[in-house]
Amino acid sequence: MGHREQLMAGAKRCLEERGFARTTSRDIAAAANAPLGTINYHYGSKERLLNAALLETLDEWSEKVRSGSAEPAAGSGAGARVESMWARVVESETTDRPLLVASAEALAQAERSAEVRQQLAEAFERARTTLAADLHGIEGAEDGEVARAVGSVHMALVAGLTQQWLVDPERAPSAREVATGLRRIAQALESDS
């Protein structure tokens, strides 16, 4: 493994252990067992390395919570896929808490960094279409507007659920409560049309 890969692994470890805001270049270099100057050489700055590490980690987290949602058990529909994914999201709120705290810190950084904002916006856009396809079979090419809307709702729910779990995990909703709430909202919307 070269310095570039070592730095990425070290930055991910620092995000988990120290968070986005408290990680220094020296922390990353020490965690990576790499010379301090290699951060700028390979990534341009500590911030760019942390941004890349965070985005890669969030992509891995997204894949983990979505895994299995595209292939439901025989006879199960979108509701089962959605509830299964939400169960994995809720579970990850406990197991991946340091990552979720780091991502919340990074979102705050986006206000002051056009680069972070752009990278996060691109990641969000990819996630929207992926969620719509995985959970509901809605492909962006077929119906891009609907896929984007459905994926955006799931993205909003993930963000809101994460905030609730970070602030008050004892009273944050379970996967079943999220699914029940979505069903009730869908019923109410259907009856209005």
UniProtKB/TrEMBL annotation:
HTH tetR-type domain: from which residue to which, for each copy?
1-61
Key word Repressor present: yes
Question: Which key words are in the record?
Answer: DNA-binding, Repressor, Transcription, Transcription regulation
A Pfam match is: TetR_C_6
What residues are annotated to bind DNA?
Answer: 24-43
Which InterPro entries does this entry report, sorted A to Z?
BetI_C (IPR039538), Homeodomain-like_sf (IPR009057), HTH-type_TetR-like_transc_reg (IPR050109), HTH_TetR (IPR001647), Tet_transcr_reg_TetR-rel_C_sf (IPR036271)
What GO terms are given for molecular function? DNA-binding transcription factor activity; transcription cis-regulatory region binding
What is the protein name for this chain?
Answer: TetR/AcrR family transcriptional regulator
